[in-house]
Amino acid sequence: MTSDEKLPDKSSQSAVDDFLRKVALAPAKPVGEGRGRLVFAMDATASRQPSWDRASHIQAEMFTETAALGGLDIQLVYYRGFGECKASPWIDNSKDLLRRMTRVFCQAGQTQIAKILKHTIRESEREKVAALVFVGDCVEEDIDKLGHLAGRLGLLGVPCFMFHEGQEPLSRSAFQQIARLSGGAYCPFDANSAQHLRDLLSAVAVFAAGGRKALENYGRRKGGIVSLLTHQVK
Q1: What CATH fold (topology level) applies to the domain 34-233?
Q2: With contact defined as beta carbons under 8 Å apart, do 131 and 204 qualify?
Q3: pTM value?
Q4: pLDDT by residue (tens digit) across 73-83?
Q5: From start to end of the chain, where are the E strands?
Q6: How far is CA 162 from CA 72, 73, 102, 175, in A?
Q7: What does pLDDT average to over the chain?
């Protein structure tokens, strides 16, 4: 067993269980709506370069697992440096997404999560977005403002799935509140949980493309931590 395949300890397993339960309870994409749309947002400030590199290799499975469900369109959004926040066009294949991600290098700067949430609101008002995935390690913004934006996403039926790297307590609380107010879920991860992050990202992608039933079928087939979804989805 390699370092990124270690089983989670009891505390992290509990967090994974809670995350998967909340995925199962989130609003599902109605059957027959066509391709799912997922905003994949990342903190690209300087501290996150190693995690950005890991995510670049993980994301391909998000497309692989959704191909039979009608497909998935992903929009990459990231912030870095002095006020820079960019969004890609909507992407329907892993090759294009990987090419765009590998062109980005992290730069020092403050968090811009409010911009991510506002952008997702605008996108979903134009055409339904099934979910927002955010991967980051810190919050340096007004939590009341972030909470208001998360609540607006909740009203639009766009759950935020917040993946938190590290253990910083104030950031953890902020991410948890964003997840709760939007109807999404929170899950911590670290450098030793790349396999778990891969499985959970794929599970959210399957949910975005095919809804709860697809997620249940994926859990049966995949096994591991994703198999925990089987009884929760029922």
Answers
A1: Rossmann fold (3.40.50)
A2: yes
A3: 0.76
A4: 888 898 888 98
A5: 36-43, 72-80, 84-87, 131-136, 160-165, 185-189
A6: 19, 19, 22, 6
A7: 75
